[in-house]
């Protein structure tokens, strides 16, 4: 009985072994004939699954390890390629965005140089001028060619509403024998006025947006038009000294410009701090130890008298201001200064223009004159280059008084006026 049981167990074990062997053989055959399985399509398998399916028990461990190694290497290379694609895409975007800027920088800076010793390094202050394009406005180009001196011109915009002030300004210009002075006539009345007074003028081609304001607008409205009008002057390659009509010329201003910046403007400031900038400390007692915060302040550039060199930043400034003024009812002087001074920050790219403040006693606003200069015996002896009656509404009378004081020598001509407006 015991021997029979042993033979039965041996037979049973042999059958199991045979079954296992048959199963392995069938598995190998199936692996060869159906490497992707019975039900899954090859397109739905992941790379990992394909390696596992192909790695049947018939394949050696070395082969499986090699496939795994190849897969890992390919995955790593794929990740690196994706990274390179992202980096190249970003570089391409930045290159397309800054292609023109890069070109301008190359033109401005030239070849790379090494920094010199301490205290000798000076940054570039003056941008290159643009290449003139006479096709922009051949008619204006011909006028400027005739009247400009050293490719520079004074430009004043005027309509019939400001004729009296324009008359005073023209008289002051003729008194100084300034020949490169041009009136942009905004209506036919000023055209005829300029013709009868032998003054160079330019009347733009019809433009509904400009003409609507130019023919009927007051001093501020007309002032806002200059940012659209001046663009062509710069494109033609001319330096422009823009002058509002409430200005009296007492010396030739071109002898007092530095020309080292894109924008050179007179200031609304009335002393050294306000005109040229100062460190203003803000106090917040609630902050305790950190209650004091330092800020930088400067009074605005006056948008009624400034010099523009024909550079890319100058043209961009005009475009920015004109664009904003066309979309909202804003004061042109506020927009002019915001575009000049606001730095780049998230969602905003600032204007990269160089700027200079004019000497406040040479290019004098009426607050400086009536609050300070006329009361100081030493300052009264110094003749300014211009006086801009920008702080006072009684402009014409004060302009006439300026002429009486500085030109005709009437020492009490300024005395009857209050410091401010009544």
Shape: elongated
Helix and strand pattern: HHHHEHEHEHHEEEHEEEHHEEHEH
Q: Which structural class is indicated by helix and strand composition?
A: alpha/beta
* Biggest sheet: strand arrangement: 3-2-1-4-9-6-10
CATH class of the domain at 134-408: Alpha Beta
Number of helices: 13
CATH H-tier superfamily of the domain at 134-408: Spore Coat Polysaccharide Biosynthesis Protein SpsA, Chain A
Rg is 40 Å
Helix content: 40-55%
Query: What is the average per-residue confidence, as pLDDT, rounded to a whole number?
Result: 85
CATH topology of the domain at 134-408: Spore Coat Polysaccharide Biosynthesis Protein SpsA, Chain A
The CATH architecture classification of the domain at 134-408 is: Alpha-Beta Complex
Q: Which runs of at least 5 residues are low in confidence (pLDDT < 50)?
A: 1-7, 40-56
Give the number of DSSP strands: 12
**Beta-strand proportion:** 5-15%
The largest sheet is:
7 strands, mixed
How many angstroms separate the termini?
137 Å
Describe what is shown at a glance.
The protein is of the alpha/beta class and 422 residues long. Helix content is 46%, strand content 13%. It has a domain at 134-408: Spore Coat Polysaccharide Biosynthesis Protein SpsA, Chain A (Alpha-Beta Complex), CATH 3.90.550.
Protein architecture, described:
Helix content is 46%, strand content 13%. It is built from 13 helices and twelve strands. The chain has helices at 2-33, 47-54, 61-109, 138-147, 163-175, 188-196, 208-216, 219-235, 272-276, 312-327, 332-341, 366-371, 395-406, and strands at 152-158, 181-185, 201-202, 239-243, 247-249, 263-267, 278-283, 292-297, 301-308, 355-357, 363-365, 386-388. A seven-stranded mixed sheet has the order 3-2-1-4-9-6-10, sandwiched between helices. β7 and β8 form a beta hairpin. The longest helix is centred in the first third of the chain and has 49 residues, at 61-109. Mean pLDDT is 85; it is low at 1-7 and 40-56. The chain crosses the membrane at residues 16-34. One of its GO terms (biological process) is root hair cell development. Its EC number is 2.4.2.-.
């Amino acid at each position: 009985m015991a021997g029979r049981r042993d033979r039965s167990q041996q037979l049973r074990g042999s059958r199991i072994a045979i079954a296992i062997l048959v199963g392995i053989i069938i598995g190998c055959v199936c692996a060869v004939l159906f490497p992707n399985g019975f039900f899954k399509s090859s397109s739905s398998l992941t790379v990992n699954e394909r390696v596992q399916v192909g790695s049947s028990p018939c394949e050696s461990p070395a082969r499986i390890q090699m496939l795994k190694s190849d897969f890992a290497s390919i995955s790593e290379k794929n990740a690196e390629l994706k990274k390179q694609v992202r980096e190249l895409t970003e570089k391409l975007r930045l290159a397309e965005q800054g292609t023109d800027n890069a070109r301008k920088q190359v033109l401005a800076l030239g070849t790379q140089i090494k920094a010199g010793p301490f205290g000798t390094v000076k940054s570039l202050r003056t941008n290159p001028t643009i290449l003139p394009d006479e096709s922009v406005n051949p008619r204006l180009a011909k006028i400027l060619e005739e009247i400009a001196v050293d490719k520079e011109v004074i430009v004043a915009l005027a309509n019939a509403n400001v004729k009296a002030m324009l008359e005073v300004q023209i008289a002051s210009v003729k008194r100084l024998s300034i020949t490169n002075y041009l009136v942009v006539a905004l209506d036919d009345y000023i055209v005829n006025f300029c013709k009868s007074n032998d003054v160079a003028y330019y009347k733009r081609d019809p433009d509904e947006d400009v003409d609507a304001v130019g023919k009927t607008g007051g001093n501020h409205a007309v002032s806002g038009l200059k940012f659209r009008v001046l663009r062509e002057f710069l494109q033609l390659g001319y330096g422009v000294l823009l002058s509002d009509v409430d200005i009296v010329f007492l010396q030739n201003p071109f002898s007092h410009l530095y020309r080292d910046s894109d924008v050179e403007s007179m200031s609304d400031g009335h002393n050294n701090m306000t005109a040229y900038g100062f460190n203003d400390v803000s106090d917040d007692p609630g902050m305790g130890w950190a209650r004091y915060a330092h800020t930088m302040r400067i009074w605005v550039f006056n948008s009624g008298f400034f010099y523009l060199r024909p550079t890319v930043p100058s043209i961009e400034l005009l475009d920015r201001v004109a664009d904003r003024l066309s979309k909202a009812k804003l004061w042109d002087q506020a927009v002019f200064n915001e575009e000049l001074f606001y730095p780049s920050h998230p969602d905003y790219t600032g204007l990269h223009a160089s700027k200079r403040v004019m000497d406040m006693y040479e290019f004098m606003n009426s607050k400086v004159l009536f609050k300070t200069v006329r009361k100081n015996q030493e300052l009264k002896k110094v003749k300014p280059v211009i006086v801009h009656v920008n702080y006072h509404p009684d402009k014409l009378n004060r302009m006439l008084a300026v002429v009486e004081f500085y030109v005709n020598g009437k020492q009490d001509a300024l005395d009857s006026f209050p410091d401010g407006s009544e």
